[in-house]
Structures are given as C-alpha cells and as structure tokens.
C-alpha cells in the first residue's frame, strides 16, 4: 500500500519555456504524484502555468522507449546497450575514415541540461567535427548575434523581475500571455505601478489586448518602424546625448543611415498612422524603458531587425540601470544555455582560433578542429553529411519544409536519435537510444534572463533508459577517448572552467532557488559600468530596411498557451488531444477570396501544402494569415528561406495561396 507519509519533495526547473519556473515534485515510491510551484524561486516566485503543473505527466506515458533499438530491413529490433554503442561507434569511425570528419554532425540539445550539451559538443569535437549546433539556431540566434556584437553578451541585459520597476515595457513580436505566461505577474505589477505596455505585432494577441499602445505592423516591416522612430527621436532632440557620447560608438554613421526614414513613408510601409508612431517614440524617450522581443523579430527579418531595435535602447540610454534594458523571450528551458555552448563557428572558450584550440587541448586532452562547421539549418536543409547524431531534437516536425528535411535524413548512412519517445525523426533513425527525461536525472539549465539553476533527480528512468551524460560517456569510451566523466557536478565544474561567461557561477548558488545565480555577473542588470565589447562601449549598428523579396498573402506561425513546440510532451499529457490549428484570416481577405468561416481550405506555398479549417478573425491583419506552430502540418507549408547571416528560418514570412477544398 502506498504510504503517503513517505512522500519526498524534490526541487526542479520546469522543462517547458525559458522562464525557468521553480517546481516542487512530490514523490511517492519513485513516482511523481504532483507538481506544485516553488515559492522560493527568485523569478517565478510561487507561480507556474498549466504546462508546469502537469509537467510530470508525459514521464508516465505508455510509449516511453525503454531499450535501445536498431532498424533492420525497415523494422526496429531490440538490442543491448553494449551492441548499440559498439555498432554506432564503429559506424562513426568507418564514415570518418571513408568521407572525413566533415561528413559527421551532432545537433540538438535545447531540452537538455548545460552539462549534457557541453558533453555532446565535446564528443563531436573529439571526433574532429565542428558540425554542431542546437535548435537555438532556429529561434534566437539573430538575438544572440546582435546582442553580442553590439553589447558584449548574447543574452538578456536585464531580468523579467525588473519589469515591475519600468515605466514602459515594449514587447515586439511576442505574446507573453501565450508563450511565457508566468511573466504576466510582472506585467500586472507594472500596470499597478502606473507603467505602460507597448506591443508591436501584426496580430491582436492576448498581450496586445492588455497593451496601452498596439502597433499592428505589416509583417516584415519592423526595421522601417525602428529607423523611423530613431529619426524622429534624433530630429526632436529626444535622445540621451550624454549616454551616447560616453558609452557608445558609431552614432554619426547610424544617424546618417536613418535620416531618410520618414513618418509619411512609414505610414505606407509599416501600416501604422504617424500619430501612433510619434506616441511610441515619446514613450520610449523616457528613462526606465525595457525593450523586449520574441520570435516575431528574429524569424522574419533576422539579425538586422534585432540590431535596429537595440539601436533604440542605445539612443534613449535605456541600458545598464534599474528598470531598463533588453529581454529576449526564449522558448525552451535551456535554449539560452545551448546557444551559449554549442555553435559551429565558435569555441566554448571564445572565438575559433589556434590559441583557443590549444587552451582547450590542455583541458580536454585533444585539440578541436578550427574550421567553421555547418549550422543545423544548413545540415538539414542542404544535406551533404553522411552521419548525424540528434539529441532530443525532432526536426522532421519542427524544421521548415518538412519534406526536404525528411529526404535529407533518409539519405544518411547513419542516423542516431537520442530521445525518450519514438518521434517522427526517430522513426527514420538507424539507431534509437532511449533517454531519461528531465526529472529522471540532474543538471543545470539557463533561463531567458541568465539565471542558472539545478534540476535535482526525482525518480529513476524506466527500463534501460539512460541519462544523456551516461550515453555520451559510453560513446566517448567506445570511440577510444579518455578523460570524460558522466557525473553532472564534475561536468558543471569543467564547463565553468571552459565556458568563460559562466565562470562566476557556484554550485551552491545554482542549487539554491532562493539565491540569485546569474552569469556573467550575478546581477539582474548587465552593463552598469561598461559594455563587454572589446572597447567597453556599445556599438550602434546601422541597418537598412529591405523590402521582402516575395510579396502576397503572408503565413505567420506562432504559439498558443496550452501547447508546446512539436507537442511531443503535451500530446502525452492526459486531457490534451493531438492538435489541429485553424487557419486564421482577416474578414477582408476572406471576402476577397470568396471564403467563409469553417471552410476547408488547402494552403500552399512553393514548398508544400496542407489542409486547414478556416477561422475568420479580426485579430489577424489584412494581408496575412496565422496558424499555430504546434500543428505538425504547418511546416509542410512553411518554406526554408533563411536569414542570410544567422541562417535562422523565416517561419513568420511564407507567401501562400489559399484554395477552397470542394467536399462532395
Ligand atoms: S511559464 Fe514556462 S517555465 Fe513557467 S511553468 Fe509555464 S511553461 Fe513552465
């Protein structure tokens, strides 16, 4: 009989979005019976959303993978761990010998701990490849690139806990109520304190409904808006001259670039009347303004949109003080951490050069290669590699142009998938290795506002499933490398020695949810005294608005609060059925196309098509349609056009045509 007096309480961090809420897992007889909020957590402060409170449910799904599988003649057969590791290692070495190390890639990790991502990256480099990346590439790589280049660190410059101190919170391309619900508590406090919320979004989202000012921009025109606002601020002397002269560089060139952006043109291009643009400019000309953003910026106009937005924070001197700064709304529990550690063009200890390679050799016992590897989007959309190891990554559903990704994966000589479930991607693998889920192992994760916290192990994994650290450790040994540990605490200590920006962290602080534990300094605010660029100054980077190459009806994709990414976890949570998104369309577009509410329509792009039920809605701007990204059919339609610099897909800008399906 279950004795509830034997219940233990284990601290953990939510496995879903990047807020990183603190959880208490109630455990009886090696089973998590309930998940409740941890009131001591410095950011979530006793709040969790519906996803957090049911986060333990998928762990007990009937279809957990419990032993290694090998595909033979199209059928998966059970094999032992010994056989799996031996065969995978031997195939990797064979491919390396035949095609060279550049034919091998290691991708994934945003659902993993820092220690797992670090070890995965180290294993790839031990094998001699820099074809490594995480799914941070497909979401906020443009943010990380622009922030690092302009300010010094590719992460939020302030914390969500600062929102309540701000006078104005600007939210661009993000709906907090849908994507990061627990942050809403800070929006409520901001409003109570008399602060204002500005939302920039082509859709009337849940967050836009509570905003004081909603700028319903035309998709793909944010850069024009930001440059026009900058021109207005400079022309009307609404800028912080002292901050600009003492703490920034590049202002004169920037000023010249934005001088041609006018309110009259903005009205036409951005689709917002000039009074609203001026109101926005005046609001952000104050002190204590936080500029925050989500995928609406990065997955349409890429790095340049983020640069243009950060320029506004520099212009108004809103960085480095209480109640001001920049926040990037990250979508997955450790996507910030993964992006910090695993990239094909940088080392974990800095830029990719001989000196840093030699420094790594001293710690690792082998010298990593210095050639620039393929990003995950290049590897999965262009193809050309022969062997891939994917860790908790389901690109067949999550990547744009699904059909193309599937073909690339099918062409591989070796595909290894490490996952707790038989995903659509795992079905294509030669080997599937069953991994432990978040509460069945321990390790640290980095939140969207630089808080690093430890997840403690609550229960054992089922059957023969192993933690990724154990799996990587077995592969490491079998491949003939030395000096690798599967102990998460030891890996954490090595990681913080290697990853310089994490060097200030201590395990004591990381393990105590009531203590702040932020990197690279343990402060909610970055850049109080100086920026972390080589000169110590922030850089204005002028960018020009470029009209999108293709025009027409634009498909935008986004999140809803009850679902999560590819829905592998939510579909395994009791009470949630598999999800089918409607296609939302503005009444004027529906009328023009002769369509009615609930019509069954075929949505086609140059990449593929899918069937949707139409939902006529004023919440969508004329000229665009909207579907939820969690519907697995959506990425048949979303095209694989990439931002030139970051190689991030433009999930929020696909030209489509809509045809009514005739039902007989
Ligand atoms: S807001 Fe995000 S981190 Fe917090 S409980 Fe919800 S899904 Fe989890």
Describe the structure.
With 664 residues, this protein is α/β, with parallel strands linked by helices. The chain has 4 domains: 4-60, Phosphorylase Kinase, domain 1, CATH 3.30.200.210; 69-139 and 334-482, Rossmann fold (3-Layer(aba) Sandwich), CATH 3.40.50; 141-329 and 530-539, Dimethylsulfoxide Reductase, domain 2, CATH 3.40.228; 553-660, Beta Barrel (Barwin-like endoglucanases). Helices cover 31% and strands 18% of the residues. The chain has 24 helices and 27 strands. The strands form 7 sheets. The chain has a 7-stranded mixed sheet with strand order 5-4-18-17-16-6-7, with helices on one face. Strands 22-26-23-25-24-27 form a 6-stranded mixed β-barrel. It has a 5-stranded parallel sheet with strand order 10-9-8-12-13, sandwiched between helices. Helix 8 packs antiparallel against helix 11, helix 8 crosses helix 12 (274-284) and helix 8 (222-235) packs parallel to helix 14 (302-315). The longest helix has 19 residues, at 81-99. It starts with 7 loop residues before the first strand and ends with a strand. The model has no long low-confidence stretch (mean pLDDT 96). The site of iron/sulfur cluster has 14 residues, from helix 1.
